[in-house]
Write a structure and sequence with these properties.
By secondary structure, the protein is mostly helical. It has a domain of 96 residues: Arc Repressor Mutant, subunit A, CATH 1.10.10. It contains 5 helices and 3 strands, in the order αβααββαα.
Length: 149
């Protein structure tokens, strides 16, 4: 089992590998000590536990890979390819279907404002008063503040 420090170094190396085009990290203890931020602790045994999580790259000498990370990268690459092909097919079928019809949608024009202004002012008056004529805080049974003070 890894210590939290070793776990952090492992996750950091995974992040570096993920950012690399080959999903790999250098097979060099000095570089790994620096990338993992373990520094001297890499050489004091912490690097041994982290290093076993990586195997030599199949095609590139001097590089290490994490098998699970390579599988995830391949899955994502396949998904992007599949999604791209599906998007292209969808675009083609939509373009063929849209021929002859208008694709541009125009918003409806606004009605005249003169008739709506009188009705909105009537609504406003009704909203400000209660059936008993109370206004403001009187609606809640609270006395209104005397403005002459």
């Amino acid at each position: 089992m890894m210590t939290p420090m070793e776990e952090g170094a492992y996750i950091r190396l995974l992040a570096y590998a993920w950012a690399d085009p080959d999903v790999s990290i250098p097979d060099d203890d000095t570089a790994l000590a620096q990338l993992s931020r373990l520094g001297e602790a890499w050489f004091d045994g912490a690097g041994t536990k982290v290093r076993v999580c990586f195997v030599p790259h199949a095609k590139k000498a001097g590089r290490l890979v994490n098998v699970r990370l390579v599988q995830e990268e391949r899955k994502q690459r396949d998904w992007r390819t599949k999604s791209r092909k599906g998007g292209i097919q969808s675009g083609i079928s939509r373009a063929l279907r849209a021929k002859g019809g208008s694709v541009v949608v125009e918003p409806k024009a606004n009605s005249s404002s003169s008739s709506s202004s009188s009705s909105s002012s009537e609504k406003k008056e009704k909203k400000d008063t209660c059936a008993n004529g109370a206004r403001g805080f009187d609606l809640f049974g609270m006395p209104t503040r005397n403005r002459n003070m």
